[in-house]
Specification:
By secondary structure, the protein is an alpha+beta fold. It has 1 helix and 2 strands, in the order ββα.
Length: 59
């Protein structure tokens, strides 16, 4: 059994950064939901941003 995100579980169809369609190689889990991006760079940008915001809100 795997916990890898799947594109069919994605809550969005387009990348929140670029507006382009999401890609199966650029998915992440955030707050229990699968979120998609158009490329791994956008995914990394999101993960960096939410890490900073989550840390700021918990401190």
């Amino acid at each position: 059994m795997t916990n890898d995100p799947k594109i069919e579980d994605c809550v969005n169809e387009t990348c929140p950064w670029s507006g382009k369609p999401v890609s199966a190689d650029s998915l992440t889990i955030y707050k229990g939901k699968t979120v998609g991006f158009c490329n791994p760079g956008c995914k990394e940008k999101f993960e960096t941003a939410v890490t900073h915001f989550d840390a700021a809100m918990s401190g």
